[in-house]
């Protein structure tokens, strides 16, 4: 029988029929896997525990042509505290949905998997502010997708702007913009740029060290939201997903 084992996180699901569920899995080695979990919503099902959002486990999959069904799962981590806190649950949902928009079938992505795994762990088990973890996730997510914000050079003229007194930020241009280049809105606080630079230097396993002052957090979230919208494209789905960000 063509079964295979893969370590994956449940990044989405859709219920169908009375007791079934279609799962989206993010596997570090295989990317996105859409699979059926039959009868998993029955209280007696051996799949009940694994067919839940954010669960990390080793999934045994039955593969028949392009149809994949979950046979069994050795659950390694449920990140259970996420279910007990609305803000943390929402943040975890945004992170998993953002992963779903970029992961591809049969395409390994260990870096993004590591980012998601660590951010889910810190959301569940650390006392970090969920918005600080979301900011850290978004910066690394943009970087991973090739949209690392330009922070020391003007995103338009490429001049080194570290000594400039007044700077702007353009999500569309891809980072900081000098006063001589086309810009809009208010100048950006240089502490915002410095915080972004430092967060990008942290490895995933140290992202719980991100602790931002309220002013910085409030300034960074809208910039990163616009950067993600620019990256994903201005369509209803991206807009609906990113509107969940505060
Ligand atoms: Zn410039």
What does this structure look like?
This protein is an alpha+beta fold and 246 residues long. The chain is 35% helix and 23% strand. The protein has six helices and seven strands, in the order βββββαααββααα. It has helices at residues 86-102, 110-125, 130-144, 190-201, 214-232, 236-242; strands spanning 3-16, 20-27, 31-37, 56-64, 67-77, 167-170, 175-178. Helix 1 (86-102) runs antiparallel to helix 2 (110-125) and helix 1 (86-102) runs parallel beside helix 3 (130-144). The N and C termini lie far apart (47 Å). The model has no long low-confidence stretch (mean pLDDT 95). Bound molecules: zinc ion. Zinc ion binds at residues 154, 156-157, 159, 177-178, 180-181. Zinc ion is lined by residues 154, 156-157, 159, 177-178, 180-181.
Rg from Cα: 20 Å
Low-confidence stretches: none
Mean of the pLDDT scores? 95
Measured between the Cα atoms of the first and last residue, the distance is 47 Å
Count of individual helical segments: 6
Brief overview:
The protein is α+β, with helices and mostly antiparallel strands.
Write the layout of secondary structure elements.
Blueprint (H helix, E strand, L loop, with lengths): L2 E14 L3 E8 L3 E7 L18 E9 L2 E11 L8 H17 L7 H16 L4 H15 L22 E4 L4 E4 L11 H12 L12 H19 L3 H7 L4
Helix pairs in contact: 1-2, 1-3, 2-3, 3-5, 4-5
Zinc ion binds next to strand 7.
């Amino acid at each position: 029988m063509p079964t295979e084992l893969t370590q994956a996180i449940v990044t989405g699901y859709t219920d169908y029929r009375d007791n079934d569920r279609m799962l989206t899995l993010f596997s570090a080695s295989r990317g996105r896997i859409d699979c059926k979990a039959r009868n998993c919503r029955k209280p007696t099902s051996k799949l009940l525990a694994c067919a839940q959002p954010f669960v990390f486990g080793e999934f045994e999959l039955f593969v028949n042509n392009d149809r994949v069904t979950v046979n069994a799962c050795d659950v390694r981590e449920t990140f259970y505290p996420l279910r007990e806190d609305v803000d943390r649950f929402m943040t975890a949902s945004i992170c998993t949905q953002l992963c779903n928009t970029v992961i591809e079938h049969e395409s390994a992505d260990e870096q993004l998997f590591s980012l998601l795994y660590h951010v889910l762990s810190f959301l569940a088990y650390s006392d970090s502010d969920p918005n600080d973890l979301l900011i850290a996730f978004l910066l690394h997510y943009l970087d991973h997708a090739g949209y690392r914000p330009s922070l020391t050079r003007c995103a338009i003229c490429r001049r080194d702007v570290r000594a400039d007194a007044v700077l702007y930020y353009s999500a569309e241009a891809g980072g900081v913009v000098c006063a001589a280049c086309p810009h809009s809105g208010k100048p950006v606080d240089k502490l915002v740029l410095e915080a972004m630079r430092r967060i990008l230097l942290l490895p995933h396993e140290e992202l719980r060290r991100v602790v931002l002052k309220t002013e910085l957090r409030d300034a960074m979230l809208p910039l990163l939201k616009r950067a993600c919208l620019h990256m994903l494209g201005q369509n209803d789905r991206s807009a609906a997903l990113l509107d969940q960000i505060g």
